[in-house]
Amino acid sequence: MRIVIALGGNALGNTLTEQMTAVKHTASAIVDLIEQGHEVIVSHGNGPQVGMIHHAVNELTHVVEQDFPVIPLSVCVAMSQSYIGYDLQNAIREELLNRSIVKPCATVITQVIVDPNDPAFQNPSKPIGRFMSEQEAKKLAKEKGYQVMEDAGRGWRRVVASPKPLDIVEIDTVRSLFQAGQVVIAGGGGGIPVISQGNHLKGTSAVIDKDFCSCLMAELVNADLLIILTAVEKCAINFGKPNQKWLDNITVNQAKEYCKQGHFATGSMLPKVQAAIKFAESKKDRKSLITLLEKAKDGIDGKTGTIIYNS
Ligand code: ADP
Ligand code: MG
């Protein structure tokens, strides 16, 4: 099978040191699938990493004497793709060599086209970066023109737009690499959001949802399976309630019904289920799997995870 694997936060950890350990387990799970003969394209999230980079470059603007230019968010996403890609491709390479599998692995810095008229730009909803006091947040908002918001009782944060991905600029490069038998890491952090202006691509201040970008990539490379690896083995209805029920195999229509009933939390499980539905209904015989990193192999064998398929 041709598989797009979307790695969640727990596959990468929250800090540089956590990431170096986490990628070893992640690489092992990925190489298990390669060893079974699957073609694998890897994508990943970047929540904590882009937050850290954004924080670091912001601090820079405070500490240096002269007016240090603001580093755009699109550049922060690019930085996160490269350093996560560095750790991942290194770990995958090592795991392949340990198993005597000869296969190059590389990261493609990936730009993703978004629509400048996407309503998400009018309604920034994705919190990024560090937590601040209300006063500090409002000061920053005034100085830099940022939008800020209170984030779930934890403090104030900058919020950015999360527009829908329309196209992947480097998709032909991704195709060439996997067609040559190489392992590709692409679409990291949802991709670098860009707006098309004639021949020029202009970075935009947004963060694309990695689950939606992975879905688009799976469609564009004509994958058979989209695997979304996260912190739970299965999706549930009535999640966290006494009548919670884990979901095994569900049809696209069932999944849509559960979305409508509000079973999946916005910003965490909902985008995954929506991405899983979109991919499963995009073409005959495509399906999606949501499960834990360590259960990817069992999930493909139908032993666990939530599978969403088009009946
Ligand atoms: P990732 O970093 O993999 O994108 P998220 O934290 O964004 O992870 O989303 C996964 C989380 O969604 C799970 O750890 C779980 O706590 C939460 N979640 C919300 N609703 C559900 C649900 N209905 N079923 C399972 N998990 C859910
Ligand atoms: Mg998430």
Descriptive overview:
The protein has two domains: 135 residues, 3-Layer(aba) Sandwich (Carbamate kinase); 85 residues, no CATH class. 39% of the residues lie in helices and 24% in strands. The strands form four sheets. An eight-stranded mixed beta sheet has the order 3-9-2-1-12-16-17-15, sandwiched between helices. A four-stranded mixed beta sheet has the order 8-4-10-11. A three-stranded antiparallel beta sheet has the order 5-7-6. Strand 1, helix 1 and strand 2 form a beta-alpha-beta unit. It is globular and about 55 Å long. The mean pLDDT is 94. The protein binds adenosine-5'-diphosphate (ADP) and magnesium ion (MG). Magnesium ion (MG) binds next to loops.
User: Going across the major beta sheet, what is the strand order?
Assistant: 3-9-2-1-12-16-17-15
CATH fold type of the largest domain: Carbamate kinase
Structural class: alpha/beta
Radius of gyration: 19 Å
Count the E strands: 17
Task: Spell out the helices and strands N to C.
Answer: EHEHHEEEHEEEHEEEHEEEEHHEHE
The tally of domains stands at 2
Supply the CATH class of the largest domain.
Answer: Alpha Beta
Average pLDDT value? Answer: 94
Q: Could you give a short account of the major beta sheet? A: 8 strands, mixed
